Amino acid sequence: MAPRIFITRRVFDDAVRYLEAHAEVVGNPTDRVLAPAELKDAAAESDGLLALLTDRVDSELLAACPRLKVVANFAVGYNNIDLDAAAARGVLITNTPGVLTETTADFAWALLMAAARRVAEADRFVRDGKFRAWGPRMLLGHDVHGKTLGLIGMGRIGRSVARRAAGFGMRILYHDVSEVGPDAAADLNARWAPMEEVLAEADFVSVHVPLLPATRHLLDDAAFARMKPHCIVINTSRGPVVDERALVRALGEGRIAGAGLDVYEREPDIEPGLTELENVVLAPHIASASHETRLRMCMMAAENLVAGLEGRRPPNLVNPDAWDATRP
Ligand code: 8YV
To answer: Quick one: 77 and 216 in the same domain?
Structure first.
């Protein structure tokens, strides 16, 4: 009997066709995020799940799906999945690393440029009919070239953001648990520094860490207090890495100059006060949303799913222990 796959949202036809060649495929007919109870019902008989960050894969869902062997997350992050609960049931979990690195770095730069040069605000200004005459002090922003970029997290995406800074003649200070090698540091014009120094020296701070207990509220009141008043903060990682209330306070009181956010603490809810601030550019979690990259992510998730269902080790397994535990 062909295995059964449930896809939690409408995805890409190429990926669905690929899955249909290997399994019986059922999709969410509504194309909206299913509530936990709806997801449990819809996925109950599935052997494989193609899930998104908006799907909570917890012990309750796993218990409701006794046949489940593989959950392929359509994302590089997997903080929506309870790995301990998956391990307890021997469910394989996969993600989509690598394919979204460059696209996400492009978008971090889009936010950085937009916040520094007030692009979103300028667009609102023109649309609102406020552009009546050129003015020497109209919508002044901050230069990007020649400045210091502070990167918190120097993994794949952090390094990719760093590479783009070369074109702007920027110096890079970064903080991470481990240092990049001396050749990479020289190539990127980057120097490791303690977190406090990165925050105090940078003109732009961009966050590229996964959400872990240690990274929750990494940027809080104390962190904003260390930054320069003209500092601009960019977050394309995970919302809870930034304490949003503290950010609203820092922006509102002019303790920092601006922010560009793609992710939020309680998505899709936005912290009260954030939308009223002119000096913040807000995007709805679209850093990886290019035609090319989202298709690649989806195909990667589909390939992981089929591999796991066919008894092959999925190429992007995040819980190898579960794989080892299911081997004879
Ligand atoms: C996506 C992401 O926007 O991959 C991730 O971890 O946050 C983004 O690439 C999202 O996950 C799509 O489901």
So the answer is: no
